[in-house]
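Reply to dn_fold:

You asked what the input looked like. This is it:
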Amino acid sequence: MKICRSLAVGLLVAAVLVASGCSKLKQSNRLPEVKSFRFEPAAVMPGDSVTAVVTGTDKDSDQFEVEYEWQVDGKKVPGTTEKLQTTGYPEGARVTVRFRLKEVTSGRFTDWIEKTIVLGATAPPTLKGVTIEPIPLGAGQDVKAVIDYGDNNSSDFTLYYKWSINGQEMEGDQYHNETLDGKYIRKGDTVQLTVGDSEDFTGMNWQSPTVTASGHPPVFSTEPYIETEGKVVYIRYEVEDPDGDEVKVSISGAPAGTTQEKNAFRLNLQGAAPGEYNMTITAVDDTGAGASYEVNLTVPESGAPAVQPVQPTEQPTEQPAYQPEQPAAQPAAQPAPPEPPAEPPAEQPTPPPPYGGMPYSQPAAPAPTAGGSE
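and this is what came back:
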């Protein structure tokens, strides 16, 4: 009994799952959608033919067809194809096409969509092109729309944006901006942008080329730098890839004769032409994501290397601290030189004694007498 009861319950669960799967399958079958529309030509003169160009898509890959109806000034006219001949209609007449998408297998169809053009009217402004950047695009990088307005002004347009990833139009406000956050982009995803002049994208639409997101770009873990050994220059670098992809490093703008070694480029300046070299080192992984760095080198006439932009700076001559001006010192008074010792007077020779060697003496003068002379 227990076995039979378990078996019955299992069959019942399986039946419920199958029924729910079938029901879900039916509910997931979606109607086709209009991707873009335009009149060709954009300006139609009376008597010309006009074509309604409709493109659509079916997310379930079901076949569909487009049904058309035409009106002129609000009155239905013959025509059930994409083209209408306007012969007999005056300038200023309003020509309207009504179209809808019909799923071939189920016979279901979308609501009618109406677009109108005025005969003889000036063609509305149109964009020259739409692209996205950056290219290459790396996983996790923000991507934004680049609009080429041609000869028109951006103020002539009200534009709406719709991003697709891997061919799937993304739902939500975050996918309807000029910029798409990189957090939604993974390695290998294909990204495309549709820009329209109507919010429901049933008017004029422009699509960007599809871009495949590579992995994260390589990263220079340190700035490339220059080392010199005599007349040999080494331009060294360190690069890594966050995704582990193989990275190839190249250099452009370097002097002739530059060779590559492990984590460096080598140049012998002995035969290098003098001049300024603005070199770019580029690292690219196998998915096309890349990063670059600029290094400058000067090769003077002498052949000795000079690294740019680092230049030796001239050191200013050190100046002594300011001292207030002092009066000039007067030289100390010098003592007068000693007078030379007086020479002893020359010894006068003693006159020879007269008459027989006796000393000569002056006779004394007679003493005067009082009373005068006799």
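DSSP finds one helix and 23 strands in the chain.
Hope that clears it up.
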